[in-house]
Specification:
The protein has 382 residues and is α+β, with helices and mostly antiparallel strands. The protein has two domains: 170 residues, no CATH class; 192 residues, 2-Layer Sandwich (Heat Shock Protein 90). It is built from eleven helices and five strands, in the order αααααααααβαββαββ. The chain has a five-stranded mixed sheet with strand order 1-2-3-5-4, with helices on one face.
Length: 382
């Protein structure tokens, strides 16, 4: 499964190279906290006697700035610095510094490297200004520094957690897509197997049904239909067993090239053709994988020849050398195609796909009034 390495994802998070966005739950939580604090500040503006309106306004504005971080952390940070400068006039610098310490968590959650470093530097500078400012009561800025560190750690932990969650979502989506593609591939495979096997036998049945009216060929046609129907049922059970990944039944077709050529020759002769077979399909130099592919090519070529071949000889040539195995099926073309024999128009494409997928060469076309299918597969030499 093609996933990004976790170490690389983690390093991206550690570098903080891009801005983040809060989830809906985080946004609601931040707005709820800000709303409650602002409401308390507004209520406090009227309850205690002698409250400085400017100090109350600065306190409310500094709290409301937390909501601005949801929109733009950079702008919110700049406005916070401006409010902090104004706070010295109203004497509320410690309140603004407290809000800035809480905002450190949002900066770690939403910001990028340069913004985080800049914010940390400005916050330390502001803490030093508050610590050394001439005030009636000394201010212990260590509390604000600890608060900022804790808030930043929480923000960073949330950032890591949500990054892992997003990565998991991506991995699950990729896995689901791979499973979907696997299902589609399996369906295409089942459809192809049915096409290569069942369609062939149905072609034989359709061909011999048209010959039942001929008294001289009726008996042999009936026998050919019976054999084709039995083989179709065997192949159908074979495909179903493979699709179910269940126990294999006995007598299943296993891609035997010699059996495929022998079966095709019998069907050609039953349809009234003469057959010439050259080459040894039992040659031990033919690898098992190549034998299976050539057997499929023979089956599909036989289906096409039964549908479209004219009267005459059908030639099956198998040429095996130390380097390659080549199968050629040549049949005469017919000026009048057989009636009621439909075509899926996918057979040649599937044959080419099988051969080219095994680094072989494939060709099918008309040559001198005959339809010639040729497939050549390389033989790996030890």
């Amino acid at each position: 499964m093609a996933f990004d390495p976790p170490s690389r994802d983690r390093s991206d998070i550690l570098r903080l190279v891009r801005g983040e966005k809060l989830s809906a739950i985080e946004r609601i939580a931040v707005l709820a906290v800000v709303g409650i604090i602002v409401l308390l500040d507004v209520i406090g503006l009227f309850l205690p006697p002698g409250v400085d309106p400017l100090a109350a306004a600065v306190s409310i504005a500094s709290t409301g700035l937390l909501a601005l971080y949801l929109w733009s952390p950079l702008i919110a940070s700049c406005v916070t610095a401006a409010v902090f400068a104004v706070s010295f006039v109203s004497g509320t610098e410690t309140q603004v510094l407290t809000v800035a310490a809480f905002a450190a968590g949002l900066i770690m959650r939403l910001g990028w490297t340069s913004l985080i470093l800049s914010y940390a530097g400005v916050f330390l500078l502001a803490s030093a200004v508050v610590a050394y400012a001439e005030t009636e009561d000394p201010v212990n800025v260590g509390i604000y520094l600890i608060l900022a560190v804790v808030s930043g750690a929480v923000g960073y932990a949330l950032r890591l957690a949500f990054a892992r969650g997003r990565r998991l979502e991506v991995e699950l989506a990729e896995k689901a897509e791979q499973e979907r593609q696997a299902v589609l591939a399996e369906r295409r495979w089942i459809a192809g197997e049915l096409h290569d096997s069942i369609a062939h036998h149905l072609t034989v049945v359709s061909l011999h049904v048209q010959m039942l009216d001929d008294d001289t060929a009726s008996a042999s046609s009936q026998e050919a239909i019976r054999i084709a129907a039995r083989k179709a049922m065997t192949d159908l059970r074979f495909v179903i067993d493979l699709a179910d990944d269940g126990p294999r039944a006995s007598g299943m077709p296993a891609g035997d090239l010699a059996a495929s050529i022998e079966e095709a020759a019998e069907e050609f002769e039953s349809a009234g053709h003469t057959v010439r077979v050259d080459g040894d399909p039992a040659d031990e130099r033919i690898p098992r994988a190549a034998e299976i592919i050539l057997a499929r090519i023979m089956r599909e070529s036989a289906t096409n020849a039964l549908k479209y071949a004219g009267r005459g000889e059908i030639a099956i040539d198998l040429d095996v050398s130390d380097d390659s195995a080549a199968l050629t099926v040549s049949s005469p073309l017919s000026a009048t195609p057989r009636r009621e024999l439909s075509s899926s128009r996918t057979g040649i494409g599937r044959m080419a796909e099988r051969v080219l997928g095994a680094s072989g060469t494939f060709d099918a076309g008309e040559i001198d009034g005959r339809w010639v299918v040729s497939a050549q597969l390389p033989i790996a030499r030890s």
